[in-house]
Amino acid sequence: MSRVLVVEDEAHLAQGLRFNLEAEGYAAEIVGDGESATDRLLEKQENFDVVVLDIMLPGKDGFSVVSELRAARNYIPVLMLTARGRPEDVLKGFASGADDYLAKPFDLSILLARLQGLLRRSEWMRGAAAANRKTSENQTPDTVGDFDTFSFQHKTIDFGALEIRSRDSIIHLTLMESELLRHLVRNDGRIVSRKQILEEVWGLHEDTDTRAIDNFIVRLRRYLEDDPGNPRHLLTVRGVGYKFVATPADS
């Protein structure tokens, strides 16, 4: 039985969620503020399988909660509830480390489907990570079209384990960082527009403010580039978007 932590300060909504989740076979518990959520997940290290997290909370908001979880290397799946599905909230949530979002008001069947998807994805990632650890780092790099890992320039991106491994370090990715990087790598050598990223990676409309994408790219450059200020692999195509190049021409 999967355990769900519902972080929601609207009592009627929280109780309704718990009732319906329990009716679907989940074990659901409720906290009404961000401090209680981080206390149970980080201080007490209670074992939950997924978190349903409202953004607007008294005191510590949902963005702060998920940021603290990721900073503490707690990668529990987080479904963030946003007010009216505002794109700026969605992008800020992804930047903080949330795995998925749902706009209020929402249909219960959609929420259940999103939770099931996160749980399946989490199970798959654990299995993929275990399998990848058994694979030699010296094997031939995977093709770009269909992969769980991708290797280039002495780095290996492990999409199953949400890690970038190099000779002397391991960098952990959020799910959205991993999905964006996978999309760019899949299009190795081709320009990917901001519109494509918004629609194909995050499911947002093209009129959304794209500055959050730029912030993601800055972070990915810190992970991938030897000199992030002079990138060779993750390039900006001015006025259009970005391009990933596994093997630059000057290599």
Structural account:
With 251 residues, the protein is α/β, with parallel strands linked by helices. The chain folds into two domains: 124 residues, Response regulator (Rossmann fold); 109 residues, Orthogonal Bundle (Arc Repressor Mutant, subunit A). The chain is 41% helix and 20% strand. It is built from eight helices and twelve strands. It has a five-stranded parallel sheet with strand order 2-1-3-4-5, with helices on both faces. The protein has a four-stranded antiparallel sheet with strand order 6-7-8-9, with no helix packed on it. The longest helix has 26 residues. It is elongated. About 4% of the residues have low confidence.
Question: How many whole angstroms does the radius of gyration measure?
Answer: 19 Å
Please name the CATH architecture of the largest domain: 3-Layer(aba) Sandwich
Secondary-structure-derived class: alpha/beta
Order of helices and strands: EHEHEHEHEHEEEEHEHHEE
Shape: elongated
Number of helices: 8
The H-level CATH homologous superfamily of the largest domain, spelled out, is Response regulator
Euclidean distance between termini CA atoms: 51 Å
Biggest sheet features = 5 strands, parallel
* Count of discrete structural domains: 2
CATH class type of the largest domain: Alpha Beta
